[in-house]
Amino acid sequence: MPELRLLHTGDAEAVLAFELANRGYFAATVPDRGDDYFARFSTRYAALLAE
């Protein structure tokens, strides 16, 4: 059974890869985040983890 755990800074690359691989699907379902979101992903990801 899968185990849930909190995200960590070391997960950023995998999360970004997931976001990019599924961007088309997400954009068809909810408004697209835009290129700026992906260009600044590392900074935003770190800020969200710090929160």
What does the model show?
The structure is a single chain. By secondary structure, the chain is an all-alpha fold. The protein has 4 helices and no strands. The model has no long low-confidence stretch (mean pLDDT 94).
Quaternary status of these chains? Answer: single chain
Number of helices: 4
The percent of residues in helical segments reads 55-70%
Largest sheet: none
Helix-strand sequence? HHHH
Q: Enumerate the spans where pLDDT stays under 50 for 5 or more consecutive residues.
A: none
Mean model confidence by pLDDT: 94
Fraction of residues in β-strands: under 5%
How far is the N terminus from the C terminus?
Answer: 29 Å
What is the gyration radius calculated from CA atoms?
12 Å
Shape: globular
What structural class do helix, strand and pairing data support? mainly alpha
Number of strands: 0
Provide tags for this entry.
globular; single chain; 51 residues; mainly alpha; 63% helix
